[in-house]
Amino acid sequence: MLEGKAKVEETDMPVKMQMQAMGIASQSLDLFDVFDCQSIAAHIKKEFDERYGSGWQCVVGSKFGCFFTHSKGTFIFFHLGTLDFLIFKSVTL
Q1: Does the chain have fewer CB atoms within 10 Å around its N or its C terminus?
Q2: Model's pTM, two decimal places?
Q3: Which CATH number does the domain 7-90 belong to among 3.40.50.10800, 1.10.287.1770, 3.40.50.2300, 3.30.740.10?
Q4: Structure confidence at residue 3 (pLDDT)
């Protein structure tokens, strides 16, 4: 388990939500192979949708670029092990 070893690069999430994001990511790495980024991302998205309502997006991998719009207070980008994690809630129109 890698909990507590994450390095946050950028976030505007409340601290409690950040801790949950990193904890769920760590749990996902225990449940899925580190190369199965799609299953890891799906698990994190499902957990956030259940806890905070639908509309969450999750990207897991390494060396990826992105450009997106997110709801205020719902964005985090961090490293855990060899993977990067991007979690955010999309803007509701």
Answers
A1: C
A2: 0.90
A3: 3.30.740.10
A4: 52
